[in-house]
């Protein structure tokens, strides 16, 4: 999932059919009854009923669809049109938009109560765009709202770099866990779930 062009999101691969493979993988997992709602359970637990949720880097829509089913108003955005097409096909209800998060501009939407960037979103954006991604996502969240991110710690984009970018983007790290079910974060954690406070 790495591209040599630093201006493009790391998500885009030179391998043909990569995006469709990803869509098919999650369709198969869902058909087999895999638990794909872990992140949604956490978000649902920390926001009031009927909250406005921005699923930033929504992929084929599994997280946003679950939150929609739980009664939240969901808008999903992703740079990959193949993934957005799959979200629109498989999960009608939420609004799904093709958009680069580093230039996200949903002018017609009211502020969101929370934004979620699950599924390693930040490690797949274009190198060097992480601060702009955080700023543009935060601009869509109401003051006092949160951004929740989750990504593996062994990727090119590190937790240390992320923490520096949080500060540059004017956000506050509220708390961090090692999993979506809130196992405490530690130095040897392989995953980081971070709660960011929007001023």
Characterise this structure.
With 199 residues, the protein is α/β, with parallel strands linked by helices. It has one domain: 3-Layer(aba) Sandwich (Rossmann fold), CATH 3.40.50.150. Helices cover 32% and strands 23% of the residues. The protein has seven helices and seven strands. A seven-stranded mixed beta sheet has the order 3-2-1-4-5-7-6, sandwiched between helices. Residues 1-5 have low confidence and may be disordered.
Give me a quick take on this structure:
The protein is of the alpha/beta class and 199 residues long. Helix content is 32%, strand content 23%.
Write the layout of secondary structure elements.
Elements: H1 18-31, H2 38-46, E1 52-56, H3 62-69, E2 73-78, H4 81-90, E3 95-98, E4 112-117, H5 121-124, H6 130-138, E5 141-152, H7 159-168, E6 172-177, E7 191-197
Parallel strand pairs: 1-2, 1-4, 2-3, 4-5
Antiparallel strand pairs: 5-7, 6-7
Helix pairs in contact: 2-3
Query: How far is it from the N-terminal to the C-terminal residue, by CA?
Result: 33 Å
* CATH class membership: Alpha Beta
Which sequence of strands runs across the widest sheet? 3-2-1-4-5-7-6
Q: Helix proportion of residues, in percent?
A: 25-40%
CATH architecture: 3-Layer(aba) Sandwich
What's the CATH H-level superfamily name?
Vaccinia Virus protein VP39
Task: List descriptors.
globular; 23% strand; 199 residues; alpha/beta; disordered N terminus; Rossmann fold; 7-stranded mixed beta sheet
């Amino acid at each position: 999932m790495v591209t040599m062009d630093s201006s493009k999101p790391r998500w885009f691969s030179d391998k043909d059919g990569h995006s469709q493979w990803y869509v098919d993988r999650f369709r198969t997992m869902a058909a087999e009854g895999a638990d794909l709602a872990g992140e949604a359970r956490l978000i649902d637990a920390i926001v009031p009923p009927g909250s406005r949720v921005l699923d930033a880097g929504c992929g084929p829509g599994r997280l946003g669809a679950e939150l929609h089913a739980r009664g939240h108003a969901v808008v999903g955005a992703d740079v990959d049109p193949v993934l957005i097409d799959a979200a629109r096909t498989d999960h009608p209800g939420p609004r799904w938009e093709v958009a680069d998060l580093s230039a996200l501009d949903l002018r017609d939407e009211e502020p969101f109560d929370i934004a979620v960037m699950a599924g390693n979103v930040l490690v797949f954006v274009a190198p060097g765009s992480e601060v702009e991604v955080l700023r543009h996502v935060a601009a869509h969240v109401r003051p006092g709202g949160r951004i929740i991110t989750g990504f593996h710690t062994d990727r090119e984009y590190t937790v240390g770099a992320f923490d520096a970018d949080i500060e540059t983007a004017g956000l506050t790290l509220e708390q961090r866990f090692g999993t979506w079910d809130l196992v405490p974060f530690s130095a040897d954690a392989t995953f980081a779930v971070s709660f960011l406070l929007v001023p």
